[in-house]
Amino acid sequence: MVETGARFQSVRFTIFCVLILTYILVYFHRMAPGVVSEYLMADFSTSGTRLGTLSAIYFFVYAAMQLPSGVLADTLGTRTSVIGGNITAGIGSILFGLASSFEMACLGRFLVGLGVSVVFVAIMKNNAVWFHARVFGLMSGITLLFGNLGSVTAAGPLSWMLSFADWRTIFLGIGCLSLLVAVAGFFIVRNRPEDLGFESPNRPLPKREQDAAQVNWLQNLYNVVALRRVWPGFWVQFGAIGGLYAFMGLWGVPWLRDVYGLSLSAAARYMTIMLLSFAFGSLFFGWFSDRIGRRKAVMIPAITIYVCVWLVITFVGWSPGAGGGLLLALMGFGGSGFVLTFACAKEVVDPDLSGMGVSVVNTGCFIGTAIMQPLFGWIADLTWDGTLVNGARVYSSADYHNGFLLMLGFAVIGLIGSLCVRETRCQNITV
User: Fold this and answer.
1) Among 47, 53, 344, 357, which is least packed by CB within 10 angstroms?
2) For residue range 133-151, what is the model confidence (pLDDT) as tens digits?
3) Which domain holds residue 264?
4) Which pTM does this prediction carry?
5) Closest CA to 417 of 359, 345, 347
6) Domain CATH for 97
């Protein structure tokens, strides 16, 4: 029997709200370096390569932690992951704000990445056990919608806050907020409905399927990693979202500032348009996929749109105004189709191992971004003409064009991955 009582609804959505607040902070940390890049370059006297490395440390550790995150979600549960993650990220953000050297800033960024790396998989696990399987795609979209609101706060609102507070004070405040959310997680979050006396929204699995949960976690992890049908989603995220996060989270604002002479606030507004489109696109594709009962047929057109926008920006050009805003909105909207890779991952592995399945796919995004951010900076540094403004490097249109060719190549990898994704028709194919 599915639990539908008012108290159950109240409890599960209260837990979901705590997790979503945590996820908003995850996205803030992910995208904030792009807006404060000018200050980071000046304060730490960094090149584009070093700036990219500072930002990418978050993604390197996030990528390295995805498989352990899946194991933690499937063994210790959501509650432990979220409490520990918030504490670690909070300490890292405070350290980043206090950093007196580039190395200290890197350590702070490392701790932030380590802390937030466990959050998304834990939320996916929470969605799998607290909500019915038939709305998993929709819940994935809602999760990413609210997470991306954190990205939005790291664009326009952050640029506005920088007008009356320095970047260090802002990161100190965010660190303290993370510690408060950890306290809320301790008192509110629970791993399963059964922990509070509720029935599960999903029917118990037959004993044959339950046996997988009793196997050693290392064997379970191997079984998931060895599944070929899990990996196309990894390449979608590696190519498409690796490049998209590198652009939205670091190089988009400097490109608009250096090439088109836009102010920080004006450049941040364009990123806000893109991030909002990405957020609502995630919700739309999750809902629409559940509605029509298809995954692959929705994902391929979305990633195709994303690739086409990169073709236009790279070979046709971009200009400020309504048309330019629409083009960036289309990029964010098309890229958001990647949200379906999480549902696909959940639906091609044993249900008890959904956390590990999601973590394998999610690793692609962060490996891609971790490679792209410093590599883009290195490519720009190769042809940089030596121009400095207030201690920060200014790159030319040709410098950025070389980097965009790389991003286009990554986008094509994502498209190829989407063509290879297994169509599940929104059902777990292992049951």
Assistant:
1) 47
2) 778 777 877 887 888 777 7
3) 6-190+215-419
4) 0.76
5) 345
6) 1.20.1250.20
